[in-house]
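Worked example 3. Consider a protein that binds magnesium ion.
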Amino acid sequence: MRIGMGYDVHRLVAGRPLVLGGVTIPFEKGLLGHSDADVLVHAACDALLGAAALGDIGTHFPDGDERFKGIYSIELLGKTIHLLQEKGFALVNLDATIFAQAPKLAPYRTAMQQAMADALRTTADNIGIKATTTEGLGYIGAGEGMAAMCVALISRSPRLSS
Ligand code: MG
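Given these inputs, the predicted complex is written out as structure tokens:
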């Protein structure tokens, strides 16, 4: 077993869709970035890559690369698990926390779990997603941005072990 962690932050701005865990969530602002700026998926990619010691999301999907401009980040999650599988690793489980003052994210948890599970070719019960506010404190509390943290546990793929 190997463990990895990921952390990401994106700025919240008007005029962008809010995409978290591959799910578009109705809100007055969205996250700013080269891709859809899905902060939850970016943290998950880094946790997975970290567990396999394969660098980070910027190594594999550089934000200056036109191929990734405006990309739906959930596609990067699928590419990330493929990179791990090529190295003989399989996901055990993933657990994440989103830090956001608003909107309330609990109604979207099941959809986010399923979208991430589909991308990772696993089941939703292997994808933990929580959300918390920062009690109005700091840039997150002021609604200027969102952050996400994620840990991932991986194992050597049983298909490849002798
Ligand atoms: Mg990011």
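Take a moment to read the result before moving on. The beta strands are 2-14, 18-20, 23-25, 29-31, 89-99, 127-132, 145-156. The longest strand covers residues 2-14.
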